[in-house]
Amino acid sequence: MAVEIERKFLVRSDVWRDRIQHSEVMAQGYLVGMQALVQGLAKSSVRVRLSGEQAWLNIKSATRGVSRAEYEYPVPAADAREMLDTLCDGVVEKVRHHVLHEGALFEVDEFTGRNQGLIVAEIELSSEDAAFPRPEWLGTEVSELERYYNVCLIDHPYAIWSAAERAAEDAGAQAC
């Protein structure tokens, strides 16, 4: 079984922009109904992701936390476009920037569309307790907050978040 161990953080400044290795525009949507995921009725999320002429089908366990089972398979870009247009309840759009810091790769997602203004940095690790560098632009960790999960951003986009939801310290709010 493939396991993804990923930590997610808010970004507190634009200093990271000087360290971008490359960027890619992405669109992703979910094939499993979001309400089933949010209500805990689904064991996994199933999403399609399109980046240029590359596309993937991704299956991830519907568990909170930094470690989740994950499987990813390439699919034809034309199929992905059709799935995004016809089978998904909505689409998350973002630019993913690959940023290298002290040998560690951070993926900085700069959301567009209805999630414009949200910028989140992710780092994949070999274990939950693996050490990693913490650049000065890395803000509050939001790995456990469901409202930052891409599946939640479709149904409850950043543009309509309340002031309390935008405050990263409001760890108790799990609305999505």
TrEMBL record:
Residues of the CYTH domain: 2-155
Active site: 30
SUPFAM superfamilies, sorted: CYTH-like phosphatases (SSF55154)
Annotated PROSITE patterns: CYTH (PS51707)
Protein name in UniProt: CYTH domain-containing protein
